[in-house]
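User: Second chain of the day. Same drill as before.
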Amino acid sequence: MIYKKEDIDKLIENLDIVEVVGEYVELKKSGQNYKGRCPFHKEKTPSFVVNPEKNIFKCFGCGEAGNALSFYEKINNLEFIEAVEELAKKKNAPLTPIRGDYKKAIQTNKKKYQLLEDAADYFMNNIFEEKNKKALIYLKDRGLSEEFIKNYKLGYAVNDWNALSDYMYKKGYTEKELIDVALIKVGEKGNYDTFRDRIMFPIHSNNGNIIAFGGRILDNNKNIAKYLNSPETVLFQKSDNLYGILKKGSIIRKRGFSLLMEGYMDVLTAHKYGFDNAIASLGTSFTEGQAKLLQKYTKNIVLCYDMDSAGRKATERTANILKKYEFNVKVLELSGVKDPDDYLRKFGKEKFIESLKKSKEIFDYLYFNYSLDINLSEIIEKKNLIKRFKDFFNNLSELEFGLYAEKLAINIGLDKKLIELELKPKIKPKFNNYKKNRIEIKSSLQKDKLEYETIRLIIKNKKYYKEFGMIEIKDELYQKILLLIENNEKENIFEKINQNDLFDKKEKRELIDLIYSVDEIENEEDFFEELKFSWNRRNKEAKEKELKNKLLDENLSLEEKKNILYERYELIKKLKN
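Assistant: Same format as last time:
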């Protein structure tokens, strides 16, 4: 929603910054100012200063600064307009909207949130019924009390095709409303409940609203997915949310770090034992969207993934994403168990704390694992070890690149310059520090690189063709490829390319290069998330340019110009984040 600038300015002017900040920070008078410990980074000596005369704050430790509104926005992880609305409500300050359909949109979302709350209550009530005691026994066997189950609204979806939907219809919700939040699915023989015979875990947004569910089967049936998450909806984007964030992230800020785990039970057991800064990535590979969300609360992460081969690979992938965003990363290694859930239930809180204190810095963890089967007395083996570090070094800032290169050189007894010679040509600019998309717009051949990478992924796995259905591909050759895939969706695309007269000799040569390059894509899901992020960014940039051009129209009224300016301002702010 957009409000009159005058109303927002008046709100900011009338806010008492000492009062606003004082709700979150213990402030003490210091001359004309107030001082306290910064809530945005961990510190022992107070360096956070509030100036009531100028109505501003500044931390001389981390550099964070602003007014009462920007403080409230950051501390509560809110969008600008959300912060304005909450503070205006608290202070009974008037806000005049200048866009008409906003209230309707807000009411629609409120109803969706309420629907999901009602569904969570239904699932939770199910678990305490005698006929569903197997679900309650499962959670109690994992060490969770009835009080804990109620606090976290854990529940049970009964083994019935329409039990939830029948209940929700009686409460007045419509079929469309249930479909919109993915609680029911549309089938050829009729609609049916998305979740059946599963333990239910409500998934919350970082603002505390239930936006989706995760479900776990009770029996280890290999023919059914062990975990099932809600499909994406207007409220829920899996790659941009995390499980377990409490109180809008304030707990993670207070602790100064977060424990990143794999599963729901890992997080719940950690919370039960007092580690309420534990979170998980919803069963998917960790994404850049999740890294961006996490950096709002802390830059310090301890990876607590499973100890099996898949968990170790996930640790490497996640660490690389986190380092790209300049996180400080450590790795928790637990012996004799599969995961943190098992460890805490078997050995308890104190042993877990001891293990946490022994967490390895990410470089040390990688070096230990990469060098296990390496004979460092042989030159070839040293070269192989350096190559294993390439992905890690590709995601470092210039400073960290130099520091880690020096450490690696010392460890294997080589000159630092030789390490840099091998690794530095591949180093990429930090995403946070440059304005272009991480996937570059143009290649040296003047091909659109984003289109090129998208086509590569679609050729490797045709399922992504539908995922990219709404994007606009301008390259003629790539348009032909998509047309071929659309018309031969169930057939071997490689054979069709060779047989088809749609392509001339030059195009076929280019296609051959494309086909051979697809094997370089190691993790399809991560690659897809990166492409999706880049397409979303490109679309926002195009929209911003469109709005900029609209402002050149001399026939616009003052009110229309204001609307466009505010819309463009919100868009630019999102692009900068």
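The chain has a mean pLDDT of 85.

User: Great, on to the next one.
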